Amino acid sequence: MKRLVVGLGNPGKKYANSKHNVGFIALDKFAEIKKIKFKPSVKFNSEIAEFNDAVLVKPKTYMNNSGYSVFKVADYYNIDIDNIFVIYDDVALPFAKLRLRYKGGSGGHNGIKSILSHLNSENFNRLRVGIDKSDNKEMKDHVLSDFSKAESKILDDVMITITSIIDDFVSGLRFEEIMNKYNGTNDKEAI
Known about the structure:
Number of domains: 1
Oligomer: single chain
CATH architecture: 3-Layer(aba) Sandwich
Number of helices: 6
Structural class: alpha/beta
Largest sheet: 7 strands, mixed
CATH topology: Rossmann fold
Mean pLDDT: 94
Number of strands: 7
Shape: globular
Distance between the termini: 42 Å
Low-confidence stretches: none
Radius of gyration: 15 Å
């Protein structure tokens, strides 16, 4: 049974280290550790990599149209909606906090809105990665801003956990077990 792991972000160097690109960053880290390469796919308007029985996707449609690529890949590979796992940033969570959940609304996230509309369902698995909100920046400016050096260092540690989560998902572990294993594990307050 094929599984689909989607990292959300925006294409291009300009956004490579932005908070909104945490999904791309996570898949790049996983690919680096597993020594797999992403290849551009015109057909899916994405970068795609295959690993074991999973397809990893970084949509190149820009965030607001991510659902298009997710739908095309899921349809082509005949992947059930409950075998889709999406990794994305969340301003409602403190920085570097992780939250796994299956189904739900968009929480105002345009990439998730697009996926909900293209899949016509909210029953897909998600990993929300906290990027916190900014008191002195507009929302758009905050999510498109780069991680600071200090944040990047913390994020490197968080990526190790995220890589383990992806590994468990592509290995076929039930999502409920993954949630039980990881939710609450990185809730220690930052010092």
